[in-house]
Each structure stands twice: as structure tokens, then as C-alpha cells.
Amino acid sequence: MRYQGREVDIEGRVRLVMESALTARDRVGVQDFVLLENYNSEAAFIENLRRRFGENLIYTYIGSVLVSVNPYKELEIYSKQQMERYRGVSFYEISPHIYALSDNTYRAMRTERKDQCILISGESGAGKTETSKKILLYYAVTCPTNDHMPALGERLLQSNPVLEAFGNAKTFRNDNSSRFGKYMDVQFDFRGAPVGGHILNYLLEKSRVIHQNHGERNFHIFYQLLDGGEDDLLTTLGLERNPQSYQYLVKGNCPRLSSVSDKNNWKVVMKALSVIGFTEEEVQKLLNIIASVLHLGNTQFGEGEEGETYITTETKITNLTKLLGVDGSALGEALTHKKLTAKGEEMITPLSFEQAVSARDALAKAVYGRTFTWLVEKINQSLALKEEIYHSGKGCSVIGLLDIYGFEVLQHNSFEQFCINYCNEKLQQLFIELTLRSEQEEYETEGIAWETVQYFDNKIICDLIEEKHKGIISILDEECLRPGETCDVSFLEKLEDTLGGHPHFVTHKLANGKTRRVMSREEFRLLHYAGEVNYNVNGFLDKNNDLLNRNLKEVMCQSDNQILSHCFRKEEAIDQKRPEMAATQFKNSLTKLMEILMSKEPSYVRCIKPNDAKQPGRFDEVLVRHQVKYLGLMENLRVRRAGFAYRRRFEAFLQRYKPLCPETWPNWHGRLSDGVSTLVNHLGYKAEEYKLGRSKIFIRFPKTLFNTEDALEAKKPDIALTLQTSWRGYRERAKYQRIRRAVIVIQSGWRGMKARRRAKRRRQAAELIRRLIKGFIYRHEEFCPENEYFHDHVRYSFLKNLRKNLPKSVLDKSWPTPPPSLIEASDHLRRLHMRNMVTKYCHRVQPEWKKQMMQKVVASEIFKDEKDSYPQGVGRLFLDSRLEREQINLKVVQTLGSEKVQYAVTVVKYDRRGFKPRPRQLLLTNTFAVLVDRTKIKQRIDYAALRGISVSSLSDGMFVLHMPNEDNKQKGDVVLHCHHVIEVVTKLSMMASKVNYVNISPGSIRFVVSRGKEGFIDFVRGSELKVAKGKRGHLLVTAPQINTA
Ligand SMILES: Nc1ncnc2c1ncn2[C@@H]1O[C@H](COP(=O)(O)OP(=O)(O)O)[C@@H](O)[C@H]1O
Ligand SMILES: [Mg+2]
Fold it and tell me: Are 91 and 648 contacting, i.e. CB atoms less than 8 angstroms apart?
């Protein structure tokens, strides 16, 4: 629902409670307690937690501190996608998450190059270990990897199941409670890739090895081994599967857990061991030790008649000695006897039954505790930063993760709880100091006046515990070392003497009546910052002493199990100096831890347990209130809110709210601080509502911010529209630009190509012209390279030109003028061409035409230049005949018989005497010619007898056939006139083979009239043809002038 996460305020306006635009689901309560209107109200605080918890929103900020409520169920918020969501975003952009804190820490380390640490606190079962695992997972998944250490992330992750198997146990509060404190350094190279890790472990709860409270268990590894180990393995270790067979596992009467499978975890642990780099042999040795602890627990003692103690389970001891790799009898002796050195002499005294039992238990604790330390060392070796990276000079940055036992209040609180709670006091100190310090520093750097905050400083409690000579630890140590009868009660008395009257220390004796009723006489009460805790002094001295008999140490030094011989050093057995007491050791290691943490930039995760039943969805307000109180969350909030509820860097503030002011939207180009003040002025902030620092704006009341946020929400549709428009514009512009660029590329490519082509052509042309000119200059020289091209070109052009301009007909006499070098070839070609044309022409000529031609040739031979009418006559076709067949009388044809008429023409015959004209037909056959008068053949002229033919040189049609003189039968020469004289004469002369006998007379023709008598035909030129009798009996023929021009 959209209205979820909003509230209806007094004016009835719907108001956003959240500062950022997140999904509706995330808008439950406030994401940051700093924005709580009523920040002094614990109830409002818890209500906000409860509401968010109800929506599975388990994370909430107090400024930069992350508060986490254990959901006791798997949430879908730890996937890889979620990790990606949180990468590179700032706290306020997205819902609170452990990944946001992890990412911000990582980025701070990278950008500021400052070591970081994340302190995770909270009571047992609040989710500290889970949180630290989530952080590690985030880094392992999202950070780049280093080539030298590719599997480091995996090893870092795998160290967890191993440490949990050996260091975690089911407790009343938590099925997987860490029974040791852990500080883990993850080292990153300059590129931000994890390159190394180091673990510091604190105060393993060793007493758990020998004793567990009801409903609790020993360390997981024992149950995992018995449940998951293969039969063979258990046989070699001499173990049975049933945990109830082992004294050290039966105390809590809780062998199994419903929430975890020991069998599966066994597999996980074995795999993790191999990933980390444990050899099979090392694993075997480790399991030998685990088994030996179980065997040790089953070692029983009996009491002899004289009070001496002996081992009743002698058979079991062989297994034990084998597993521990020590001498059997020596171990037996050491378990029942004590070695003392008095006045330089060694004495061995038997132990009482109780002493033997506690010696055995001490050995079990020592063996397990030291093995655990060895395990951590071994893991550290595997995670160690490799030399080459360390020395690469580029320096590593570190993120430290502190997962340490939270404040613990049990029914019976002992030495361990004392230490744990002391540790939490120290962490609270650190927290106060660092939070306040950073707050103060921020005010200073931002140039804002500091306003003091009232808070409880727990230094007084720390001093109560750790002060030299006067502190509880000092008194405890002193009591342990004091010669004479000391016991836990004497320690309590000493405390009362020294610390009586301290406001945070109470005992039964010192207390008032009311308190006295709830305290036993063996208890002392400390008023911790987080609440009151009663500690029972029983066992304090022993646990602080943490002594192991010297002869047991000696036996263990001899072990051929390398792990044990590493854990129990020979020097230790010989060394007479007393080792440091447990509490002091712890104090020192804490001091060191504080130094480590102080040197780093801290981030905090405050874990809260919602109920004691480990149930999902249940929010026990009383329990939560208690934790909120002792975690100091309200104080934390108060410090954060002391001055201003909200602060943000100028750029972030401006970036978010700039749409609300026309001057800052869409972009502010001036100084950031000016932009912010323009913006807030526009929004109408009052002077008391905010302050501007150097780089941040501080807003005093959440209400101011909420109003701004509301305004932004209302403005959003406008912004969306603007964004949409500009995005579309941008997209289209980009598209257009892309197209335009492409077009230009194509265009320039094309133009370039064209220009290149043109240039090439020009270059070639210039070159050609140059060659031609040169050739032209050298054209008269001998053939040489300079004129070679020119000549070639000239010849080529001539031939090309010739090809186009060849004469089309034989009569066409045109021919292109050849260049000098081709004159000869040209002539040849010309001849060839002519011959070719002629041949072609000849092939084309038809037989009739050939005949015609031959006749014309003959005519030409005869008449050319001889007879005036020739030029006129030669142009005309010579016909096959001038008469149609029908025009020749049939009788004549019959008379001719087989002789075919080849040619017929009408002629005029002139009588030799009188020159009377008579029309006749002249018929030519192959051998003779006949003159026909209609039906009658008048005269036959055999060709053989023909003496010659005469014609004039003029244009008349007269011709004379000369007949033989001696032939009496002949009547003389025949004088004829025909309009086709050239044709007739040519044909006749050809048929008669008398071509050479045609004679052309210029002035007159003499002819035979009859035997011995001659006639003449005279020719003159006149205007028109006229045949008439002339002078002296001559025939006068006037021939017209033919204009030949
Ligand atoms: N973020 C979480 N998501 C789901 N379950 C969780 C989460 N944190 C804690 N738990 C549950 O709570 C149990 C106790 O958490 P753990 O981290 O071991 O507590 P602590 O280390 O503070 O004692 C875990 O075993 C797990 O079942
Ligand atoms: Mg834990």
C-alpha cells in the first residue's frame, strides 16, 4: 500500500515518514532512528524496531551504526543480486542492510586508504557471528581477486565452519554460540582484492570441555565426530557412536540438536579443513586429540585403603596413551601423582581422589584449549599475506571484523561471564569514545559550535575491574599468588575490603536488605553499564590459575603427536617462572585489541535478539528494551541527535533536493554551499532549523527534512516528465548524431574515391599529353623511346580513323592521308581493300550483269573516245532484245529452224543506190544475222563472211556491214540505221567475233554498192539527225551535237 510508511499528521496531511523514495515495503517506520521525532522516547524507539521487524525489515540505522534484529529465519535478502544492488551506493539511497555497511566500509578503506574495523556486538544469540559471516561473504563475492591469492576468499569463508566446530557449542541461548572471541583482519591489496587474513582468538571457554549446564552441549566437534565419522575412523580412535558413553558429553543431557545436523556439518568441516590446507596427517592428529579428550573424560579413579588414588579404567588408558602419543605408565603416574620441588629436591607425592580428578580435567582443558590455539595459528598460516604481496611496496589496507561474545547474564555467572562482561565494558568505552570523538571531530571540521551531550561514561566500571592494585583482576591475581590458605571466599572478603563503597560494586554483606535477599553469600554484584550481574566466586581462583601439574606437562612434552608437542613446549616444563594468570592474560590481550581497534576507523553493528525462544516473528519487548538499554542505543541516538538530526554533504543534499528550487534545477553551477543556501532559502528554512558547515548541511529537526521530502515527493511527476523529455531528446539527438556521423563518413569516403579517381585520370592525361608533346618534338627523329608513343598514337589514330572512313564503293576514290611512317602500309591496305571490294563486287554480280558488263567493256573498247554518242549510249542498259518474241513473225522463226534468235532490233535499211529507207528487223543468231521484212527474210549475213562494220564518229545511228567483195551472191555492203547503234554493233561484233573489225570513220564511210562500185556516206554535225541524199550521190547524215559536258 502506498500509505504504508506514511502518517497522517495534525493537519490531516499525508506525510512521508521516510526520507528517501524507496519501495512502499521499505517505508515502514523510519530507516534511521535519527529521524525519529521523539528521539528521547525509548518506547518510540522500540516501536520503530518492532514495526520494521514485523515486516522482516531487520536492519535500521542510527546514523552510521547499523542495528540488526535477529530474524531467526532465512530471509531472501542475501543473494548475489542484493549484493550488486548495494555496490557503490550510499547509505540513504537504499534500504538499510549489512551489505550497505560492508560496502561503505570497503569504499572508505579504498578511497581514504585508512584501515577500517567493523565491531559487531550484542548478546549471545543476537546474530553477531551470522552478521560477520555475511560481511565476509560480501567481500568474498564482490571484491576483485588477486592473481597470487585466487582462493583466498574461499579460505576466508571456510575458516568459519572449522572455527565454529571447535569453538562453538549449543548454549541455553544459542544453538551455535561462539565460545571464544574472534577478531579477524582481512587484508586488501591496492586494487581492493583480499590478499590475506589474520585471526586473533580470545578466551576460549575451556570449562565447557569438562562440564556443560543442563540443556547445553560440549563443543560441536565431539558430536560431529561421533555422528559423522566413518566406522573405520571411530574404530581406530577407539570410539563408540553414542555420545552418552562419554562423561564429558553427558553433563548437559543434550546429545542432539534439532536445528543442526552433526553428520552434515562433519562433512562440511572436513571439506573446509582440506580447503584451508590441512594435510590428511594433520587432520588425523587433530582427531586423535579430540578422541583422546573423550577417553580422558572416561578415565576413572579409585581410592585405595591407604587413601592412595589409582586408575580403575586401566584398559582405556592404553587407547588414550596411543592417541596422545605418550608413554602409558608415565601418563598414569602423572595423573595420580604430583611432582614438587622443595629445597632443590624433587619429591613425588600421591594425589587425592579429588586432586586426581581435577588434574585429569585440567589436562583435558589444556589439551583442548591449546589445540584450539594451534588450529587458529594453522588457519592464520593458510590465510597469511604472501611475502611478495607484502613487499610489493604498494601497502595493504585492512578491514577488521570483531565478533566477540556479547554481554552475558546467566543464572549462575562465573569467571567466564566476568571476563566476557569486562570485555563488553571495554568495547562500550571504545564505542563512546569513538562515537563522541567522531561526532566532535565532525563538528570541528565543519566549523560548528560543539554542544555537549549527556551520557553515561562507563570508565568507572572499567577501572573497577582493571585498575592496577585496586582492581578486581589485581586482587584476584594477588589472592592466587598469596602463600598460605587461599580460597574463593577469602578472595571475596578481600574484594569487600578493598572495593567496599564503590558505587558499582555490591556483595551480600555490603548490600541493603532488599538486594541482600536476591544475593547469595558467595556472590558479588557488579553494576555494569548494561545492567546488574551477580558473580559467584566459586572456581574463580582455580580458573584464574588455570594450572596444569608439572609432571603432566612433562609427559605431554614427550608426545609424538606433532600438534601436542607443538602445544606443550619443553621449555615450559622446565621453566620455574609462573605464567601469567588467566584474567591478566585476558586483560592484556584486550588492551592490545583496543589498541588495534583505536587505530582503525570503526563501524558498528548492534545485534539484538528479539526473543529467547529462537523463534521467528516473535518480538519480546521486555527483552529488546533491556538490550537497547545495555547496548546504549538510546545514548547513541542522543549523541547523534545532540545537535542535529540530519546531516548530509552539500553535493548529496543538492543532488537530491535541487528539483525543488528553480535556481538549482536542473543544475547548479556555482559553489555547492551557495547552491545549498539558495535551495534552503527557497524552501523557507528558518535560521534555527539548520546550519551550514564547511561541506555539510546540518538540519536540526526531522520535521524540516520530512517537509522537504514531502515537497520532493509532490514534485516527482514533474521531474519524471522533465527527465523523460530530456532523455528522449537525448536519445533522438544521439541517434541523429550517429546517423549524421555515418553519413559524413560515407560521403567523405565516396568523395575521396571520386577525387582520387579524377586525380588519377588527370595525372594520366597530363602524362599522356607530355608524352605526345615530346613525341611530337621528336617526330622526325629515328624511332626512339621519346617518340615511340607518339608514333604509335599517330598510327593508331590513323588506323582507327581509316576503319571508320574506308571507301564504301569501288568508285569511291577517297582515302585518308596516312602519316609518313604508314605510307607503305596504307598503300597496301588501300590495294587490299580495293581488291577486297572488287572481289566482293564480282561475287555479287549476276550472270546477266556479267554479260552486260562484258558487252559494255567491249563497247568501251570499240567506241570510247571514238564515237560521240558513246558516252550517252554506254550509260544505257544493253537489252537482251529490242523486240518481243511476238513481234517476230512465226514463219521467220520457223525458217530459222534450230538457230535461236539471240537479239532482235528494228533498223532502217538504206538502199545502196538511191538510199531509200526501208524498215527492217535485224535478228542475230549465234552464227548469222538476218534482215527481215515483216514475214520474209530479206538477207542472211553469215558472221564468218562479214568483213567489218563501220560507223561514224558522230552521234548518228548509221552503221555499215561490209560484206565480202568476191562473193557474187552478195549484193554489196549493207547500210543500216538504228537508234541503238552502239548496242547493236557491240552485240553483233561480239557474236561474230569481229570486234577488231569495227572501224570508226570520222568524216565519211566508204561502202561497196556492188562489184567495183563504191558509195559514200558523209557525216556532218548539225542541229538534229537528218539522213538525206547529198552531193555527188553521197548519203549525207547530219548528226546532232551531243552535249557531253
Ligand atoms: N541474519 C540472520 N538471518 C537468519 N538467521 C539468523 C540471522 N542472524 C542470526 N540468525 C540465527 O540466529 C542464530 C544465532 O546467531 P549467531 O550469529 O550465532 O549469534 P551470536 O554470534 O550473536 O551468538 C543463528 O544460528 C541463526 O539461526
Ligand atoms: Mg557467535
Answer: no
